[in-house]
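Working notes for the structural subgroup meeting. M.R. asked for a predicted model of this chain before we commit to crystallization trials. I am recording the input and output together here so anyone reviewing the notebook later can reproduce the run.

Input as submitted:
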Amino acid sequence: MALDLSPYLDAIEAELQEIVSPPAPVHAPLYDMMRYHLGWANTDGDPIQGARGKRLRPVLCLLACEAVGGIWERAVPAAAAIELVHNFSLIHDDIEDNSPLRHHRTTIWKLWGLAQGINTGDAMWTLARLAVYRLRDYGYRERTIVQVAQQFDETCLALCQGQHLDISFEGRLDVTEKAYGEMIAGKTAALIAASTRLGALLGDADGAMVDALGRFGRHLGLAFQLTDDLLGIWGDPAITGKSAASDLATRKMTLPVIHALAWERQRGESRLHELYGTQDTDDASLTDDASLTDDASLTDDASLTDDASLTDDASLTGDASLTDDASPAAAGALTDDAVLAEILARLDAAGSEDYVRQQAATHQQAMLATLNALTLDSPAARELE
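Returned structure, recorded in token form:
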């Protein structure tokens, strides 16, 4: 029987609501922007009854705390901090990606401008940082709080480093699988790893168990992102909330594409390179990103097999570069739908879908093996599985 997550979610929501409250009326507009982003308010700041989201990362933090024998209620401030830093990153992502929508709602920067969007994200990051110090109210020692704060800051830096790599990949077709793995390890996996690691730390686990649960979270985060890569191309729009093959339409450099481009290079071909250089994506719906960076969930069909490594395939980490003058003239004669269909055909020929499924399965298997080795036996530990 699945564990009832309602108590965890209710506690997280109450903590978030308390943290994101204006200290004085003059600052209410800033907090209204944050509350709007979190789904609690409309553009006028009036309360609304919106979906609160899955709160995956903070729930993982509390489950990890309980799984190692801790009292999960004491870790709620850290869980709230994790959720706030996740949302800070989304506010800035929307600016950096020029996204007008998130989950069919206008993004903060589109409503209030770039300057206010940046400042609102900064404010949310600061509230996340301050939330860590609320652990004092739950009886944690200063030494433990300093440990949490340091790991929290290191995670925020990893997020920024991963985002830097992601931005630097835009417009490039020579991104290697190794570089992509480093990017998602920072942008996606780092915060999920911190969630389970900090939960174990606040549950008073020993260093070996804290490290192990951190590895569990990292593998979960990598599997999560790779599954999202699959959904962004082959996912059902009714489930993902994105247009069919939306990642291809926006020319995102995800692992299926990186794998297929490398496959072509090995064969001395360049058709996918030419096709991926054509783009006409003015449709704003393509940027309404419901991807992992905003709580897309893993699907049940992501249980896959094989032990291929994410970054060890030497054929995909070479330094062969693509020339800048590869002409998309032939592809340009095709309609957008025809271009997308041919891109999909090239990915199919390269076996990209199966390859990425194997990569996701590898991390899922490593995740479960790490958890099973800890021999934890509690409802919370079983929920982590």
